[in-house]
Automatic annotation (TrEMBL):
GO MF term list: tRNA (guanine(46)-N7)-methyltransferase activity
Highest taxon above the source species: Bacteria
Top enzyme class: transferase
Source organism per UniProt: Streptomyces rugosispiralis
Pathway where it operates: tRNA modification; N(7)-methylguanine-tRNA biosynthesis
Encoding gene (name): trmB
Protein name: tRNA (guanine-N(7)-)-methyltransferase
Annotated segments matching region Disordered: 1-30
Amino acid sequence: MFPGGPVADPAGSHHERRIRSFRPRRGRVTPGQGEALRRLWPQWGLDIDGLSRIDLGELFATAAGPRPGLPVVLEIGFGMGEATAQMAAADPGTGILAADVHTPGQGNLLALAERNGLDNVRVANGDAIILLREMLAPASLSGLRVFFPDPWPKKRHHKRRLIQPEFIELAATRLRPGALLHCATDWEPYAEQMLEVLSASPAFDNSQADGGYTPRPDFRPLTKFEGQGLHKGHLVHDLIFRRNDT
Ligand SMILES: C[S@@+](CC[C@H](N)C(=O)[O-])C[C@H]1O[C@@H](n2cnc3c(N)ncnc32)[C@H](O)[C@@H]1O
């Protein structure tokens, strides 16, 4: 589709079919997004093929060379990437590895990163679970962000929700002690599920002393999906948990 750009279903033939937390979303790629994909993907893009371990220092290399020891935060499901770019601009000393399957959003984030001179953003294409499980080393991440994951409101689809015990166990192995796991959702029943699953995990401690939700932190910009939820009158909940030493 885009010569040298992201490929469709990069891990499809190498990994067993699992219940996916996303739906394939084609979406229309604008000329600007297509141009960004063609030009910037070879430099800043990564297909999640599940085949090799990533050296994060190399992945975030700049013209000045690799950046070993750079703290790296994974964001799963960045959508159009506006919030991702803003958070990356506010924190240039942290690498942001942003994963999604949404091609227009990948192009949009690449274009935003270039326009704003962000050399700390890398865009991963494919299933972030395969990225975590097969491609990231244990204790390699300094943070994980999951903002407005697909709520899958129908009961028969609940198994597709990202935040559940198995995923949290996997995330715990990839996060180093002290790393923050930050989730946000505008779907009340999913917020309750997140709080229940995270509170039950021995690997994480709630950053809120009362064991509840975190007041919306001002460092998290409004996301596109959040804006739509607020417009519908939804309440938004943030949850910030810290990876402990266990
Ligand atoms: C509801 S959207 C929210 C996007 C954005 N965070 C926002 O708030 O506007 C959820 C996004 O997560 C992505 N997603 C869901 N599961 C994923 C997975 N396992 N790996 C990568 N992306 C995923 C979807 O493709 C979708 O773009």
